[in-house]
């Protein structure tokens, strides 16, 4: 039984969590269209951390956190723009080593809870009263106004990014959610700079397809074939992410024809506030990286 | 003796089905890979529910498969209310998926859990309507009787709307493709976003097991189950189940997923009237 | 014998439900108590129907009615909770300010 | 054999029913109540009420899912991260519960209900169906009207926008000073109920 | 009895399987943090979660009650004939008014 398991595991595509740095978006996305590589949507599902390019120092703590969240045994592979075949070979070799050694890399961050909680409070869990204190290291969310239906329920605030797989690499959003509707959003750090090759229509289309749950179709598109998927246009609601008279549907239609969909300037937070999380992610995927980077940097420049 | 044989048949079907489903999904090596990794604790999780959710998902798949007759007149649970038992499995699946997303105490799983509750509940309605429609000509809620009622013509021909609607239900129950609102890509894998190691592998296996189970039920209710010429009953059931599994995997890979809010409207405004129409058609045909 | 066991169980469920309905401060928890009492009633109905009434169909109908009552109670109860919360932003039967730690 | 299982299931139903008011997590409380219902449904299955038994589980699974959603929505500390007790008139309630259970139990022990078990070969589901369409037709259709009233009532009460505009508009008392915070008890987390930019137009 | 035994058996088996297979989980504090793409959150994720289609869920539990009547109806449908069709048609027609009303009020989407 164990032998079968090992043989099977050896044939598995490498489960890789990608931390993409400046200038590496296009290359990394094309890398994952290969059969022998699988881009894990969460570090919990990966055993290799692929660091593509030079991660700026502001993001190094986030990188360390993502690294630690990969379950052991784990390993890091650096990619500085070598040939894709070589990097895949390195990943495979690292995986093989991991199976043999079965320890992998140590944690990078110290084991310190966000708040001291052990032994504090009447029950020793750090809490106080009903809602107070920091039970198990964190306070509880508190109520606040809602922008849609006026039910004042809890607001959950978090900083998401820079390596969130559904966001463009480098983009860190400070989001306040109520349920899964975005009540407030601000840009913590703009996406990493990417050269124009990240705007290629096939890459843009593939990003949208992956969000729509069509990984295979995305791989086909990156391989130069037709997506072969049903209801792609229909699944996107009309009017979603409308900027200067073109909405997401129009942009996806242009990409399907192999045309670029250039965009004028727009206000990114305004586009996202009030949207459901799924809509917001679709809107973000429907913006070509260059336009998105410009929009995200606009408030910084001003 | 028969009971023992049937227990074995259910186990074997589930096991072989899971392997087949993993092959169709190209997920078999990945499952082994996942098993080799350690399991990571999340912050202050609901440990009991985290551990029980995958187990109950698996149990629901097994119970669902137990009401399916392997040969005409021969099911492990030969209950007069087999259809209701299956419906109960569907209802409990919603709870299990919800608990799976609730237990890790993390935002993306939580969003996935609530999305699934929003979609999974109304999906029950088309499911129950088409199953009741299939029970009309059989004059019984027992799956054994439903198989017997299809000796002349299969339900898929008598009630053409039934099978497509039930496939939507099946996609929802197995967290697949266009109905995979719990484990979607925009929430980093949703309810599974915090799963690692053996816990993750078990959840994926349970999903595949549910695929087997729901395909077997669909094959029984709409494709005559074990009925068929020449070959023995179980073989026909297995063939039909495998075919439906392939169809479901294909659909899951090909059809885009819309936003949950939109799908909710579609469920109530399009699919519910369609399933009502299915009920009316089969009622008129049965009279 | 079986009937006695069933009815004792039903009595215990009704007792616990009554305790819950009376003691809980929150309206939603109070509804849990009500549901538990109805659960006891349902158990008693099933027991009587099966063991004492010879399976007369009205017994089953009564069980369905009990369940319908639960559904109605829940739908209206929660709708009320939403309406009250929307107006007052509080769901407690007593003031919430005093309970915050 | 059946007696033993019925006794065990009754105990389980009572125990899980008790847990409802003892666990801190609202999700656990809701699903504990569901387990209690499942035990009752299982007793039904054992007592030759297959339809009522299984359908109890079916309906209650769905209802407890909704119950859990609303419990988490409206209870403070829904996950029970801080252990808590939120009871009032505790002794009175315990007393009332115990008295109710004991008196009902005594009534059970001292009464002699007729013994007339359901026939083994009876098709109870079909009997119920004939009952619904025949003698109890009126009850059946009345249930339909009641459910309709429930649906309409629930929508009116809980949904925000109705024929007469947003349900919460005009529900706040006026401010003590011009444009000031509304008078009366303040919700926690402060007012902030003032901007109503409504999001709509899709779906 | 068989039904009961089989369901109980599968449940027990699955739970045993899960216990046997699931090793205990460990993690350091940063490891245990919820995955947010490297970001972090202030508060616990467990919250008074704003479930958006709440009105829909209330309408649903009322509408779903109809299933309880429909199952036994399905069994006697053929033997009762046109009467069964008419009565259930009326029942569903009454309930569908509620759904139409809910649709008009826009409850079948995220509030």
What topology emerges from the helices and strands here?
The complex is a heteropentamer of chains A (302), B (287), C (101), D (203) and E (111).
Chain A: H1 2-11, E1 14-20, H2 25-31, E2 37-39, E3 48-52, H3 60-69, E4 75-79, H4 84-101, E5 127-128, E6 132-133, E7 142-143, E8 154-160, E9 172-178, E10 181-189, H5 201-211, H6 215-222, H7 232-235, H8 248-256, H9 268-272, H10 277-285, H11 289-301
Parallel strand pairs in A: 1-2, 1-3, 3-4
Antiparallel strand pairs in A: 5-6, 7-8, 8-9, 9-10
Helix pairs in contact in A: 5-6, 5-8
Chain D: H1 2-20, H2 26-46, H3 50-74, H4 90-110, H5 124-133, H6 137-158, E1 161-162, E2 165-166
Antiparallel strand pairs in D: 1-2
Helix pairs in contact in D: 1-2, 2-3
Chain E: H1 2-21, H2 29-32, H3 54-64, H4 66-80, H5 82-104
Helix pairs in contact in E: 4-5
User: What are the segments of chain B in which pLDDT stays under 50 over at least 5 consecutive residues?
Assistant: none
Strand coverage percent of chain B:
under 5%
Task: Kindly report the greatest chain-chain contact and the residue count on each side.
Answer: C-D, 81 and 92 residues
Total helical elements of chain B: 11
Strand content of chain A: 15-25%
Multimer state: heteropentamer
Largest sheet: spatial strand order of chain A: 2-1-3-4
- Coarse structural class of chain A: alpha/beta
Give the N-to-C terminal Cα separation of chain B.
39 Å
Q: In DSSP terms, counting alpha (H) and pi (I) runs of 4 or more, how many helices of chain A?
A: 11
Number of strands of chain B: 2
Shape estimate of chain B: globular
End-to-end separation of chain A = 63 Å
Give the ordered list of helices and strands of chain A.
Answer: HEHEEHEHEEEEEEHHHHHHH
Mean pLDDT of chain A: 86
In total, the number of strands of chain A is 10
**Can you give the mean pLDDT of chain B?**
91
Q: Please give the order of strands in the largest beta sheet of chain B.
A: 1-2
Rg of chain B to the nearest angstrom? Answer: 18 Å
Q: Ranges of chain A with pLDDT <50 over ≥5 residues?
A: none
Helix content of chain A: 25-40%
Transmembrane segments (chain B): 55-76, 83-102, 114-136, 205-223, 235-252, 264-286
GO molecular function (chain B): NADH dehydrogenase activity
InterPro entries (chain B): NADH_UbQ_OxRdtase_su1/FPO
Organism (chain B): Palleronia pelagia
């Amino acid at each position: 039984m164990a032998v079968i398991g090992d043989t099977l595991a050896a044939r598995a595509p490498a489960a890789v969590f990608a931390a993409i740095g400046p200038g590496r978006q296009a290359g990394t996305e094309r890398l994952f269209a290969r059969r022998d590589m699988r881009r894990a949507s969460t570090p919990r599902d990966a055993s290799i951390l692929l660091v593509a390019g030079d991660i700026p120092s502001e993001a190094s703590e986030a990188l360390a956190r993502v690294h630690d969240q990969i379950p052991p045994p784990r390993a890091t592979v650096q990619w500085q723009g070598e040939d894709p075949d070589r990097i895949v070979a390195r990943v495979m070799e690292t995986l093989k080593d991991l199976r043999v050694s079965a320890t992998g890399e140590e944690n990078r961050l110290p084991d310190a809870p966000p708040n001291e909680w052990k032994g504090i409070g009447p029950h020793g869990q750090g809490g106080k009263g009903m809602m107070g204190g920091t039970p198990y290291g964190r306070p509880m969310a508190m109520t606040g106004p809602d922008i849609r239906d006026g039910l004042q329920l809890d607001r959950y605030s978090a900083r998401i990014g820079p390596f969130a797989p559904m966001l463009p690499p480098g983009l860190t959003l400070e989001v306040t959610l109520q349920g899964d509707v975005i009540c407030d959003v601000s840009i913590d750090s703009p996406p990493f700079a990417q050269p124009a090759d990240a705007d290629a229509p096939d890459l843009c289309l593939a990003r949208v397809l992956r969000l729509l749950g069509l990984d295979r179709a995305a791989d086909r598109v990156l391989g130069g074939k037709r997506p072969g998927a049903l209801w792609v246009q229909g699944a996107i609601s009309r009017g979603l992410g409308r900027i200067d008279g073109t909405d997401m549907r129009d942009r996806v239609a242009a990409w399907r024809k192999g045309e670029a969909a250039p965009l004028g300037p727009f206000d990114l937070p305004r586009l996202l506030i009030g949207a459901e999380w799924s809509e917001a992610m679709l809107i973000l995927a429907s913006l070509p990286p260059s336009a998105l980077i410009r929009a995200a940097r606009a408030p910084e420049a001003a | 003796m028969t009971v023992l044989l049937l227990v074995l048949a259910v186990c074997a079907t589930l096991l072989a089905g899971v392997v087949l489903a993993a092959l169709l999904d190209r997920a078999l090596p990945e499952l082994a890979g996942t098993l080799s990794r350690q399991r990571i604790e999340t912050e202050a999780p609901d440990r009991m529910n985290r551990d029980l959710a995958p187990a109950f998902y698996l149990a629901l798949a097994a119970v669902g498969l137990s009401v399916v007759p392997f040969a005409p007149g021969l099911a492990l649970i030969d209950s007069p209310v087999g259809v209701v038992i299956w419906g109960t499995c569907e209802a409990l699946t919603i709870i299990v998926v919800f608990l799976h997303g609730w237990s890790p105490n993390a935002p993306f799983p939580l969003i996935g859990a609530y999305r699934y509750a929003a979609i999974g509940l109304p999906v029950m309605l088309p499911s129950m309507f088409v199953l009741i429609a299939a029970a009309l000509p059989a004059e019984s809620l027992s799956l054994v009787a439903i198989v017997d009622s299809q000796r002349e013509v299969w339900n898929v021909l008598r009630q053409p709307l039934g099978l497509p609607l039930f496939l939507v239900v099946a996609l929802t129950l197995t967290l697949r493709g266009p109905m995979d609102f719990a484990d979607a890509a925009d929430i980093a894998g949703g309810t599974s976003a915090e799963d690692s190691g053996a816990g993750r592998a078990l959840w994926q296996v349970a999903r595949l097991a549910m695929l087997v189970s729901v395909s077997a039920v669909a094959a029984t209710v709409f494709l005559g189950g074990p009925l068929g010429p020449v070959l023995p009953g179980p073989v026909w059931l297995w063939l039909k189940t495998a075919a439906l599994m392939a169809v479901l995997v294909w659909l899951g890979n090909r059809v885009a997923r819309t936003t949950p809010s939109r799908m909710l409207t579609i469920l109530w405004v399009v699919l519910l009237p369609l399933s009502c129409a299915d009920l009316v058609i089969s009622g008129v045909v049965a009279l | 014998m079986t009937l006695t066991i069933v009815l004792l169980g039903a009595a215990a469920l009704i007792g616990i439900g009554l305790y819950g309905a009376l003691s809980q401060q929150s309206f939603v928890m109070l509804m849990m108590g009500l549901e538990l009492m109805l659960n006891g009633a349902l158990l008693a109905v099933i027991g009587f129907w099966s063991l004492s009434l010879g399976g007369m169909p009205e017994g089953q109908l009564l069980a369905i009615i009990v369940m319908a009552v639960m559904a109605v109670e829940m739908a209206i109860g929660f709708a009320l909770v939403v309406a009250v919360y929307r107006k007052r932003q509080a769901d407690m039967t007593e003031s919430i300010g005093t309970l915050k730690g | 054999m059946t007696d033993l299982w019925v006794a065990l299931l009754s105990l389980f139903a009572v125990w899980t029913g008790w847990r409802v008011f003892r666990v801190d997590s609202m999700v656990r409380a809701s699903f504990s109540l569901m387990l209690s219902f499942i035990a009752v449904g299982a007793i039904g299955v054992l007592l030759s009420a297959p339809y009522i038994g299984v359908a109890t589980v079916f309906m209650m699974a769905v209802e407890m899912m909704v119950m859990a959603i609303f419990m988490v929505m409206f209870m403070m500390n829904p996950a029970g991260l801080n252990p808590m007790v939120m009871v009032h008139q505790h002794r009175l309630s315990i007393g009332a519960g115990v008295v109710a259970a004991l008196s009902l139990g005594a009534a059970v022990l001292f009464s002699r209900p007729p013994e007339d078990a359901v026939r083994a070969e009876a098709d109870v589901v079909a009997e119920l169906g004939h009952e619904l369409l025949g003698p109890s037709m009126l009850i059946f259709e009345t249930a339909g009207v009641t459910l309709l009233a429930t649906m309409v009532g629930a929508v009116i009460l809980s949904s925000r926008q109705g024929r007469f505009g947003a349900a919460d508009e005009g529900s706040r008392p006026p401010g003590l000073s011009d444009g000031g915070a509304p008078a009366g008890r303040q919700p926690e987390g402060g007012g902030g109920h003032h901007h109503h930019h409504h999001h709509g137009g899709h779906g | 009895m068989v039904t009961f035994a089989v369901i109980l058996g599968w449940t027990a088996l699955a739970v045993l399987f899960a216990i046997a297979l699931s090793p205990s989980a460990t993690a350091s504090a940063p490891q245990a943090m919820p995955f947010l793409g490297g970001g972090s959150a202030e508060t616990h994720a467990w919250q008074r979660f704003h479930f958006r289609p709440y009105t829909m869920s209330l309408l649903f539990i009322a509408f779903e009650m109809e299933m309880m009547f429909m199952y036994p109806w399905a069994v006697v449908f053929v033997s009762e004939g046109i009467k069964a069709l008419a009565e259930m048609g009326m029942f569903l027609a009454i309930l569908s008014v509620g759904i139409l009303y809910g649709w008009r009020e826009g409850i079948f989407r995220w509030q």
